[in-house]
Design a protein that fits this description.
The protein is mainly α. The protein is 68% helix and 0% strand. It has 2 domains: 67 residues, no CATH class; 133 residues, no CATH class. Helix 5 runs antiparallel to helix 6 and helix 6 runs antiparallel to helix 7. It binds iron/sulfur cluster.
Length: 234
């Protein structure tokens, strides 16, 4: 499947994982594989299939490594070394990682306290309102996941992989920034629907806007990153 030219290489690394809304499902290897594995099967079967794939991959790596006389403990050693542990800690404690995780908690709190009727996204006050809620809910974790991926990449691999790692991080950050842009617009729409909640919504907007500004400062090349498929077709 990987060699099939219809697939856009690496498109799934910099997307927002919102496959239901994606225009590139037919050109995404990740989507095709997920469909192939899960097609018509129950969740448990899906998990077992994934486990089987990991086991097979792990077995193949071991086989190839022992054929070539390589030490298969290298991955464990890599991830448990002091140097790596401290880089992971640095990434976890980075102000962007913390700010993003704080934001997703704030979103949950906001919907729980301010708008309990949105708990199941079942409000009936119009499609636009529902759309705004869906956008906020979708991106609240995505922003954090993409920023963490970028920070880990920067901390763990930039020394060894240089520009490649930094560009990959820029791609993840671009996906996070787009998520923040869309969320900010969605909060703005919510403000129109709930003028009496302006203060509370402004707190969310301020938090997100600051996070976006800090992200752009930390990753100045991210906005210009060209995402395969979304920004350029190949
Ligand atoms: S590129 Fe589209 S189809 Fe593929 S994982 Fe991302 S959102 Fe889903």
């Amino acid at each position: 499947m990987h060699n099939n030219l219809r697939f856009i290489s690496g498109i799934y690394n910099y997307c927002d994982r919102w496959c239901k809304r994606c225009l590139f499902t037919s050109r995404c290897l990740n989507y095709a594989m997920t469909e192939k594995i899960s097609g018509g099967s129950s969740d448990n079967l899906f998990v077992r299939e994934i486990q089987k794939l990991f086991d097979q991959a792990y077995g193949m790596i071991n086989e190839i490594a022992s054929e070539r006389g390589m030490d298969t403990d290298f991955a464990d050693a890599f991830f448990t070394s002091d140097k790596i542990a401290s880089r992971v800690e640095e990434a976890e404690n980075h102000c962007l990682a913390k700010g993003a995780s704080e934001y997703s908690k704030k979103v949950d709190e906001w919907f729980k306290i301010e708008c309990p009727s949105f708990d199941n996204s079942s409000d009936h006050r119009g499609a636009d309102l529902e759309e705004s809620v869906e956008v906020i809910q979708w991106y609240k974790h995505l922003v954090s996941a993409k920023l963490s991926r970028a920070l880990y990449g920067n901390q763990l691999y930039s020394e060894e992989a240089g520009d490649v790692a930094r560009k990959d991080s820029d791609g993840s950050v671009k996906a996070a920034l787009i998520g923040m842009d869309r969320s900010i617009r969605a909060w703005g729409r919510l403000k129109e629907y709930f003028p009496h909640k302006t203060d509370k919504i402004s707190v969310m907007l301020l938090h997100l806007d600051r996070l976006r500004g800090k992200t752009e400062l930390e990753f100045p090349g991210a906005r210009a990153f060209v995402r395969p498929g979304f920004d350029v077709l190949n």
